[in-house]
Design a protein that fits this description.
Blueprint: H1 7-27, E1 31-32, H2 42-45, E2 59-60, E3 63-64, H3 70-87, E4 91-93, H4 99-110, E5 117-119, H5 135-139, E6 143-145, H6 157-167, E7 171-174, H7 185-195, E8 198-202, H8 207-212, H9 218-221, E9 225-231, E10 235-244, H10 249-259, H11 272-306, E11 310-311, E12 323-327, H12 334-343, E13 346-347, E14 349-351, E15 366-370, H13 372-376, H14 381-396, H15 402-410
Parallel strand pairs: 1-13, 5-6, 5-7, 7-8, 8-9
Antiparallel strand pairs: 2-3, 4-10, 9-10, 11-12, 12-15, 14-15
Amino acid sequence: MTADLTSATSELLRHVRETVEANERWRAQTLNLIASENVLSPAARSVLDSDFQHRYAEGHPGGRYYEGTQYLDEIERLSREVMQRIFRVTWADVRPISGTVANEAVFSRLVPQGATAIAHTVATGGHISHARIGSLGKRTKNILEWPMSADGYSIDVDAARDLIHKEQPAIAVLGRSLFLFPEPVAELAAVCAETGTRLFYDGAHVLGLIAAGTFQDPLHEGADILCGSTHKTFFGPQRGMVLTTGQDEKLNNTLDKGVFPGSSSNHHLFSLPALLVSALEVESFGQDYARATIANAQALGAALAAKGFAVACPERGYSESHQVAVDVEPFGGGKKASARLCEQDIICNMNLLPGEPGKRAFDPKGIRLGVQEMTRFGMGPDEMEAMADLMHGALSGDRDVRSEVAALRARFPEVRYAYSVSDLQ
């Protein structure tokens, strides 16, 4: 039975559809440089809309608290197996519904109330979940800052070892949101083992680069736990995961309880098939994609610097990840510059840069750029140069670049490094 629609409800329903369609059209003509986003392949999108949208499952495949989950169990089991293969480990949990929920699962079980922790500040790239106002802060406010190198983009290893020796923290958190270079996992693993400190690596941004072996390999360098988001450089749906090497069964059991019931119940089953398809794409195409992504970040950094932008770390090749950090204070700062770029259909975010006080989070000097989505559409170094020119034009006030942005974007309409929908048939 269909209810009679009032004119207001009918208009609102139509507005929902039109808004979604408008976003699709607009995004297809923009250059998206948000470092925490990516796109699914058509193959992955094709399995998002299924009966799994309606279902519920707690626990593990074969040990659910609900009946009727046998097909769900198969998808989750295969997803876990593929992740173990990709990351060369024997323990993986694919149930967290985001990277932050994965972090929550870890912190809730491994950080005693009031214990000492070490993490990056937001100003040195740390994620909000590592902060006193985030997930880690629910367990302790005693969060010490990593000592940093002069440029603020790398940990001072000797000072960090001394700090761990002195404070003997329960957990040491590596990984960032502004993440240009690998972390010193191997250099800190021994001292963490000596002091009983859990070495935790938040790989949310660089998980796809880790999977490809093009950035670093935290678990095999000595980290106890690796968490990550599956929708950034790992180009799947918006989910998270927790991984260990699998050798420490007590740790695995502790983290298992942190995931369920600790941080989630039902775990958004509808997106698991898309995660599995995306993981298989990462396994097949991820290394070529990751290499192209890093090359594009370095090319964009060089091209922006050639245009006069103050790009971070020129002496280090600008980046070894998918990100580029730029001081845009000459253009009014990060808030004004990112808004101006968005008006011109170039999407990025304002970002604190090392040395800035946290109170400037809503009006920082910098912007953070990520090339991972445009790389997945097939753009290369030549397009990075064109992008730098468009950004300079938009921010210097020389010209309206929207038509040029649309023309560049129109040349790259299809997702690359992917299976086709027909491959699933």
